[in-house]
Amino acid sequence: MAVDPDLQETMRRAGVHVTSFEQLIDWGRSNSLWPLQFGLACCAIEMIAATMARYDMARFGAEVFRPSPRQADLMIVAGTVTKKMAPQVVRLYNQMAEPKYVIAMGACAISGGPFKEGYNVLKGIDRFVPVDIVIPGCPPRPEALLDGLMALQTKIRQEKLLGPNRARHASASIPGDVPVPIFGPHDLEPSANRAIWNPPTIPRKPDVA
Q1: In the chain, what are the domain boundaries?
Q2: N-term to C-term CA, the chain
Q3: Which residues, including other chains, have CB under 8 Å from residue 108's CB and lie 6 or more apart?
Q4: pLDDT digit string, tens, across residues 58-100
Q5: CATH number of 17-156+176-189, picked from 2.60.40.10, 3.30.1300.30, 3.40.50.12280, 3.40.1110.10
Q6: 15 dihedral zone (left: phi>0; alpha: psi -120 to 50; beta)
Q7: What CA–CA distance (Å, rounded) separates 88 from 41?
Q8: For 61, 123, 126, 192, which has the most beta carbons within 10 A of its beta carbon?
């Protein structure tokens, strides 16, 4: 049940905070994100810089980078995802604790970047794991990562735990794990997780001689 905003503001001025259990849970989770400690390429340098004293990611409650996926709930895919690395990234995602979130940081993680035409580069990690926030750039600066982190926190604070619009992790019908691709004769199999990646089909006109 939603709390009346006018009541919240009136009580806040009196020094009393009125909230719902759902809002309390979302507030706590949004301010205690534990990112997974790994990087793939040059974007990881910017991610590391965001944790240093100049930018201080700790101000936003996300300074505890964990070396184990079982202790992390935020994956920052920072850098180029090769097809050789893609299955390992998916395995790490499956081992993370629920509820878990993914930030695709940089052009390479989003779409393959300048290496998109390479036969060995995955054209976006969103083909295999659900991505919550994308941060464009090559590479994006630490300020951009902090902006993406705050956007993710806003998204978490708006999540519903009950009802038809409940969050993914709160729905028993949506599995927490995603299929891990394997190497086939010519490419990864499957080439994408169709349960989460279904881009629109672009109709093309036939060439006219």
Answers
A1: 17-156+176-189
A2: 63
A3: 40, 41, 43, 79, 80, 81, 114, 115, 121, 138
A4: 988 887 899 999 999 999 999 999 999 999 999 999 999 899 9
A5: 3.40.50.12280
A6: left
A7: 15
A8: 126
